[in-house]
Amino acid sequence: MGDVIDKIIKISGRNVNLCYQCGMCTAVCPMAEYMDVKPHQIIRMIQLGDERVVEIDAVWVCASCMACVDRCPRDVGPGIIFEAVRLVSLRKGIDKIDYKAIEDLEAAPTLAMVTASRKYTG
Known about the structure:
Layout: H1 3-12, H2 24-28, H3 39-47, H4 58-61, H5 67-71, H6 78-91, H7 110-120
Helix pairs in contact: 1-6
């Protein structure tokens, strides 16, 4: 496997090879319809060693509700793996929010900004 995939697996502590592509994670995901790549497809990309997984927007759309973790019959924990993918992306210097692009930053709710900063920036 590639360096990126190894980091994702190490950080998540999950065995992606247990996934048999049942699609339960996608079925229970409240955000799946807004994702460019569905949760079970992301897991498959990792299984295949596709390092482009860090470029996928779907892991940033994930609401981290962990419904997929609760319902996974093989205890793969897609939501936990998605957090690892986000972390690897952030460690590579790929931030998903640009504060300079926010027109009225002063008016933005503080809690929203803190939450967004924790999830979308390194």
